[in-house]
Specification:
With 245 residues, the chain is of the alpha+beta class. The protein has a single domain, classed as Jelly Rolls (Sandwich), CATH 2.60.120. The strands form 2 sheets. Strands 1, 2, 4, 5, 7, 8, 11 and 14 form an 8-stranded antiparallel β-sheet that branches. Strands 3, 6, 9, 10, 12 and 13 form a 6-stranded antiparallel β-sheet that branches. Strand 12 and strand 13 form a beta hairpin. The protein is globular. 36% of the residues are buried. The structure holds 2-oxoglutaric acid and fe (ii) ion (FE2). Fe (ii) ion (FE2) binds next to loops.
Amino acid sequence: MTAVASRPQAVNLAGVDWTAVEDDLNGWGAARLPGLLDPEACAATASLYERSELFRSRIVMRRHGFGEGEYQYFAYPLPPLVAELRTAAYPPLARIANRWRARFGEPAVPERLDSYLADCHAVGQTRPTPLLLKYEAGDYNRLHQDLYGALHFPLQIAVLLSRPGPDSEGGDFEGGSFVLTEQRPRSQSRAEVVPLAQGDAVIFPVRDRPAEGQRGPYRLTLRHGVSRITRGRRLTLGVIFHDAA
Ligand SMILES: O=C(O)CCC(=O)C(=O)O
Ligand SMILES: [Fe+2]
């Protein structure tokens, strides 16, 4: 058993104010969860990157034009901490997602992750999507959307596992900001940089979010990425709720 497996309280979701999360998502397109993982859980999760038997595939970003750096998708069964985070964060996020879907007259997604994944599996989206990303100095992640088939859950989470800051202050890396862009239809994009400390999470829309126009709701299109890492190494845990085709 890993240290992660033996600490079921490692995911600190109990104190989250989901109303504030929803307000932040509706207000500016992202919500920060400070200290979702403690430093020990961050280090234990980051160390999983070396355990290739835990993953179903490894992606070298340059080969696909995605940027510089690499990531690995976990295999099922997910490590306990990752499974716990995906399962526990799903219901409150589904409630937010369903209020968004209702504004467009779309049917609700299931209230529980296992039911939602059954829907994914029924349309051939069976491969797990939670991932660990690893960037070294000079690496970056181009603005993108994590869509893997016809079904997508509207929200996702990324957790910073490394310590930002200069070496002299114990930081693991510098640069490497989490960036979101948001585009109105037929308009220019707005960028939002989300400052993250080690263990902080950011919740953000996978593809779009509703905004209220004069003739009813319309969609703002979002993309996310990471600016260039200028020193050191930066690891992230990505939690995507839909499985992949
Ligand atoms: O490394 C990051 O902060 C972004 C990761 C990402 O693209 C994702 O989790 O989908
Ligand atoms: Fe992503």
